[in-house]
Structures are given as structure tokens and as C-alpha cells.
Amino acid sequence: MYSPEYIGFFAAILTTAAFLPQAFKIWKSKNADGLSLTMYATMGLGILSWLIYGIMIESPSVIAANSLSFSITVFISIFIIRYRK
Amino acid sequence: MYSPEYIGFFAAILTTAAFLPQAFKIWKSKNADGLSLTMYATMGLGILSWLIYGIMIESPSVIAANSLSFSITVFISIFIIRYRK
Known about the structure:
Two copies of one chain form a homodimer.
Chain A: H1 4-17, H2 19-29, H3 37-56, H4 60-83
């Protein structure tokens, strides 16, 4: 593993972890009023594209980050649809 | 520009654009109740790390995406602090 991957995995942990409080908040409050489904749907497609990019450039951190983030984004999107008024 | 960069820039447009509806929604409603500051602060630091990673691996799409996303994340964070109850 070459040096930029350390920064990459640090970034991966943060951007993946960033989705967790939001997922937890919406799950606990059963309220998704302030959240934009458009955002999470677009984000999900974007993250999927980054995953393909990561595979193409063979970057372990980009692949790891975007695999996890994609799962969480799908989870949040489902919650938004489920709890919307 | 080699081939993966096309996918990279497509991903960049989507993940950057994904932040815009949320920024617009919070700006229009002056309401940030459903949004997690923890998420945006962590995301901001993560995006900044991806930007450093992008510079290290010399990826144009990673650099472009994370420069823009970082600005928008800072903007949303400021709105959350300003409009929180």
C-alpha cells in the first residue's frame, strides 16, 4: 500500500462515518422532514459512479469508501421515503 | 485525460450536485431541524482529506469534485448553525 492510501482511508472513514449520524437521527426520530430525497438519490448514483472510477484506477480507498457509502445512502433514502408525510 | 476520468467527472457532477438541493432547501425554508451538523462537519473534514488524496494521486476528477463539494459543505454547515433553534 503506497502512501496516498493512508490519506485515502482516513478520508474514507470520515466521509463514510458522516452518513451515520444522519441515518441514526432519522431512524430515532422517525422524521425525515428536513431531508431531501433528491439529494440522497443523486448522491447514491454519484457514489456508485465513484465506485466504478475507483475500480478503474485500482484505488483501494476509493473502492472501500464508496462501497460502504453507497449502502448507507440507499438505507437513508429508504427511510426518507418511509417516513415522509 | 485518460478514460477513467470521464466516469470520474460524471461522478463528480453527481456528488457535487447532490449537495445543492439540500443547500437550496435549507436556504429557502430557513429551517435546518432535520439536519445533522455532526454529519456536515465530519463530511467537510473527510472531503478535505479526499482533496489531499486527489492531489497526491494527481486525479483531476477527485480534485475538482472535492474542491467544489468542500465549499458547499462549509456553506450548509454555516446555515445549520445560523438557523438552528
